[in-house]
Amino acid sequence: xxxxxxxxxxxxxxxxxxxxxxxxxxxxxxxYGPPTLMAPLYGPPSRGADAPPINDDDxxxxxxxxxxxxxxxxxxQDVEMELQPLEEPYDDEAIALLAADAPEIWxxxxxxxxxxxxxxxxxxxxxxxxxxxIDTELRAARGHLDEQTxxxxxxxxxxxxxxxxxxxxxxxxxxxxxxxxxxxxGDLAEQIELANMNQASQIETTISNLNHMDFKTDLEAxxxxxxxEIANLRNARHQLRDNQEMAFLTIARYxxxxxxIEEKLxxxxxxGVRNRIGxxxxxxxxxxxxxxxxxxxxxxxxxxxxxxxxxxxxxSLIGDxxxxxxxxxxxxxxxRSDLVGRFAGQRFLLLAVDSGPRAAxxxxxxxxxxxxxxxFVSGDVRFGITASGGVxxxxxxDGSYLDVFQRLEACVKAAKKQGRNRLFECKRTELxxxxxxxxAPSFGIEEREIRL
Length: 452
Known about the structure:
Blueprint: H1 2-29, H2 39-42, H3 56-76, H4 92-101, H5 114-140, H6 147-176, H7 186-211, H8 219-254, H9 276-288, H10 291-294, E1 297-304, H11 307-314, H12 316-333, E2 339-344, E3 347-353, H13 357-372, E4 374-378, E5 381-383, E6 387-393, H14 401-418, E7 423-426, E8 436-437, E9 448-451
Parallel strand pairs: 4-9, 6-7
Antiparallel strand pairs: 1-3, 1-6, 2-3, 4-5, 7-8
Helix pairs in contact: 1-3, 4-5, 5-6, 5-8, 6-7, 6-8, 7-8, 11-12
């Protein structure tokens, strides 16, 4: 008797589910269902608005088949109604490549000319990810090269250059069509267009060099030559990226729209800290809140010394990992209220809140000595890096955070000129203040290794 009862309940449940499914399908057919549910019944979205509609006979046949299949599956199989968690394996290198494509999901609504600049940056980021992959493969093949590897990397690099030229050309046309929006900033548009022309010229030169390369006489020489071409592209790309990011911010400042920039543009996908856009957006809020007049704030700017050499000798993938470690190290040493960001390229900015100049100098010097004591390990290669820096106190007299930036730039320039791997300070708020070198004792920081 118990078995009969269970069978009756199961059959009743199946009939009820079947009726519910039929009723819902008919509702969708009559236009009362969600639009997204029409696709499974009418075919994929790619049919388009001009595709012929499905007639009633076809619909009934489709529905009958679906119901028959669903009923058979329910009766013949033990279906567990349990949702399993979605697992998607990934590693650090995959994250770096995925991050380069992430901007494609940005909602660039084309309201402002900045969106055209961002599209140019997106094309560069995608090209940068592809170049890094090729560079890594070439370096890994050193000592046991074969012609197939060289030819494959040559072909991939050439395709990347051609693809980037096409994407950049399209983005440049979008930008040119919106130059009228810049008004009094028309000169800035000319600078952006000139920078993009220089970038395109470098890529065309690389393509020409690739077309005339000899791959069979000396494979090791061909490997070195390809890596050099990638380095040339990387340097041009980084310079253009920084210029266009500054152009984006110049326009946003001029039109007083810093506070309207979307937060998804605030962070540097490589290092995990804020980028220049995110830094300026935060500082804009600070100045609006008069935080620079009500609280003690000190600013520190670091510039990694000879970082181009690191990229050239170790490869851009290793260089990116160094930047990531340095950015995270600075972030870990900052206070909860402090602001940390990638200022540009290999430069990092720290704004220490409720910190006077002496405390800021000690913190900055600790960071500089910590960077100096790091030994980076990549395979059998061990190398180090140093940083030059500047420190200045934010003053209530600063008209904007750009005044602070200008003093920091002067400090870093003086540190580089004096021999690098040192700190300079600007004690006064005058823009013509002369930076002074900071003489600090050794804090006894121990050497440590970081494997990349």
